[in-house]
Automatic annotation (TrEMBL):
A GO molecular function held by the record: glycosyltransferase activity
Protein name per UniProt: Glycosyltransferase
Lineage, highest ranks first: Bacteria, Bacillati, Bacillota, Bacilli, Lactobacillales
SUPFAM superfamilies: Nucleotide-diphospho-sugar transferases (SSF53448)
Transmembrane segments annotated in the record for this chain: 295-314
Annotated EC: 2.4.-.-
């Protein structure tokens, strides 16, 4: 039996602002593969146009659309959260999640339609998900060259991805790949993931308190902990129509900066909100899900807070301002002060 069959897929897209140009292209690509798609759920997250009128104007008769309108932007957690809940009541057996600036090329559908499902499950078990490879977006350029992947142990006692223990390169943190050309990832983004309805029935709902950034991390952690193996194939890709915020803030040579570095180096206070959410939510996730040893965790926390002062922070007025925001984000994450942030906080 093949992995992807006719009428087996629901597609969930969350759209923000006015991305009608991107959405038009993404839906046109889906229409070419309509035989695989039972329905398309589109969540309009606070955008200022009528999504139903827009969909009707495209005259895409091959696809069945379900639209959900959030009157205000509820963040990724609110948008994908309500979309996944809707999928669980009206969706097909598989769910493909996309951003509104991604599309799936025909070659990916062909690969999935020819992938031997029984052979994959014979190796990885009955609970699998596929996270599509995003070549323009993926920070891990050597992903398909390695023979091993990090496992859950790698994340133990981390503070927003940081741990001094990573310097030890413990074998316990890595799992040898049973099939070298197939990557396995413990954490994955929403965009490009294909999951199965039966595998998320007992997964906790999307945590709306994250608002934006990190809610997909928590959701896929829970999937992995429930026994779902999240796989990547080089032949199964999604294409980004727009650069991410990270890609627009790269160093010379294309090396992407961390959110901490971006936060501390900017002169514009209005650019602080994205890394603030990322750091706050990442610290919260680490404390709630990965803290196993108090000594190691709080040592990591101390280093995480102090090191950027010496490594990244410009010794300027804006640098000290940004460092205070950085520490505030860490404190909020540790104390569980979550939810949407008042943007006026960054108008200083």
């Amino acid at each position: 039996m093949k992995y992807l069959q006719e009428n087996q897929l629901t597609v969930l897209i969350v759209t923000y602002q006015d991305h009608r140009d991107f959405l038009t292209e993404a839906l046109a690509k889906l229409n070419c593969q309509a035989k695989f798609i039972k329905n398309v759920i589109i969540v309009q997250n606070g955008a200022a146009y009528d999504i139903k009128d827009f969909i009707e104007s495209l005259a895409i008769d091959e696809l069945n659309f379900i639209t959900i309108v959030n009157a205000k932007n509820e963040g990724s957690a609110g948008g994908f959260g309500i979309g996944i809940e809707k999928y669980q009541t009206v969706g097909a057996s598989k769910l493909l999640i996309l951003d509104d600036d991604n599309y799936i090329p025909n070659e990916t559908f062909e690969f999935l339609a020819n992938l031997d499902d029984s052979k994959v499950r014979a190796v990885y078990g009955d609970k699998i998900a596929i996270s599509l490879y995003r070549p323009q977006h993926d920070m891990d350029k050597s992903r398909f060259e390695r023979k091993q992947d990090v496992n859950e142990h790698f994340f133990e006692n981390t503070v927003h991805k940081f741990s001094i223990m990573h310097k030890l390169h413990s074998k316990r943190d890595y799992t040898i790949r049973p099939v070298q050309e197939v990557c396995e990832t413990f954490i994955a983004p929403y965009s490009g993931i294909i999951l199965e309805k039966k595998d998320i029935v007992n997964i906790e709902p999307i945590q709306r308190s994250y608002y934006v950034y990190g809610d997909d991390t928590r959701f896929t952690i829970m999937m992995s902990r429930s026994g779902v193996r999240i796989l990547k194939f080089k032949q199964a890709v999604s294409i980004d129509l727009e650069h991410s915020w990270y890609q627009d803030n790269t160093k010379d040579g294309g090396k992407e900066k961390s959110d901490v570095q971006l936060m501390l180096e900017t002169d514009n206070a209005k650019e602080l909100w994205r890394p603030f959410y990322q750091i706050r939510n990442g610290v919260y996730t680490g404390k709630k899900l990965f803290k196993k040893n108090n000594l190691i965790f709080y040592l990591n926390l101390f280093i995480y807070c102090i090191m950027p002062f010496f490594v990244y922070m410009p010794k300027t007025r804006s640098g000290f301002r940004n460092y205070r925001f950085f520490l505030k984000a860490v404190c909020n994450g540790m104390l569980g002060k979550m939810g949407e942030i008042d943007q006026s906080r960054f108008e200083v």
